[in-house]
Specification:
By secondary structure, the chain is of the alpha/beta class. 37% of the residues lie in helices and 12% in strands. The strands form 3 sheets. The protein has a 5-stranded parallel β-sheet.
């Protein structure tokens, strides 16, 4: 059996859902001017991930780094580049591969600071390329680089102060811009599957088959659960993406979470075991969607443990 990777998503920055410092909005939080990640929680969770069988870590960096190319982005208390490099060495010492994530979706890019309101301008493109290049250097040319691109719709931005979303040719052009910035450095681009759900034909036409795609669906796949699987058109499109993307030639890294329900982990792994060709399934992404703080410590640990149980139950 081909080795399946188990990657854990951890947040260094939390400024991907909120763009207001004065009122709660998406997820009930606010834009944080200071780093909220607690290092002792970070250490415990990453060590537990390695112990429980994860072989890689995906780090959501955002504004939590004092980038040398754009230090103006950093929040107060952000790690220095040197600190991040030291941490990457510690994680590698635990036997973990490390991958970076910068989400360039307009619904999750408040971490870009002032550039968050300059989408698709020459300044914006240059800043994004600068950051991608610097992060690739910091991570010593990682195998994968996640550029996000989820939930870029008006509906998902109702609670934001600044609403902006790309569509039609601009959407595909910008997605390819980010992917090309990554490709130019010999790294494989990685994105979320959201735009495939609504525009499968256009997605297949514009997005290269070398791109790793992560479909996600955080509730139920089977009827042996408190609620049935989705039967609405959007829910059906989401579930079908797990099989249609591989049929079109894409490799997928399905993402599951314990944020909505605990059953999602088991259901995702089971569904993929039964429906996705092994050669199109390089691994799974564990994303609890809790922040790296003491308040969320045990939810993060639970997410990792649930993945271990599913891995053992389905023979991965």
């Amino acid at each position: 059996m081909k080795k399946t990777n188990w990657c854990f998503l951890i947040h260094l920055s939390c400024n991907m859902w909120h763009d207001s410092t004065t009122r709660p909005n998406a997820r009930g939080g606010k834009l944080e001017p200071k780093l909220t990640t607690e290092k002792d929680v970070w250490d415990e969770v990453t060590e537990y991930a390695a112990k429980e069988g994860c072989d890689s870590i995906l780090i959501d960096l955002g504004d939590a780094i004092q980038y040398k190319s754009h230090p103006e982005i950093a929040v107060e208390g952000a790690w220095t580049v040197e600190q991040l490099k030291e941490e990457l060495n510690r994680l590698r010492g635990l036997g973990l591969k490390v991958y970076p994530k910068l989400n360039f979706s307009t619904g999750h890019d408040a971490w870009l600071g002032v550039y968050h309101r300059m989408v698709s301008t020459p300044t914006y493109y240059q800043v994004c390329k600068d950051l991608i290049n610097e992060v690739i250097d910091i991570f010593d040319k990682p195998e994968l680089f996640h550029v996000g691109m989820d939930e870029e719709y008006a509906y998902n931005q109702q609670a934001l102060d600044f609403v902006c979303y790309r569509q039609y040719d601009l959407l595909w052009d910008d997605m390819n811009f980010f992917c090309d910035c990554v490709r130019e450095r010999g790294v494989r681009p990685w994105i979320w599957s959201d735009h495939f759900w609504k525009h499968p034909e256009e997605f297949a036409e514009h997005i290269g088959k070398d791109v790793l795609v992560s479909p996600w669906h955080y509730v139920y796949f089977y009827f042996d659960a408190p609620c049935p699987p989705p039967s609405d058109p959007h829910g059906i499109a989401v579930m079908e993406s797990y099989t249609k993307l591989p049929e079109l030639g894409y490799e997928i890294m399905p993402c599951f979470s314990n944020y909505t329900c605990r059953e999602n982990t088991d259901h995702t792994v089971r569904y993929c075991k039964e429906n996705v060709p092994e050669e199109k399934l390089p691994g799974f992404l564990i994303a609890p969607w809790y922040m790296t703080t003491d308040a969320d410590r045990y939810d993060l640990l639970e997410g990792i443990h649930l993945a271990k149980i599913a891995r053992e139950n389905y023979g991965y």
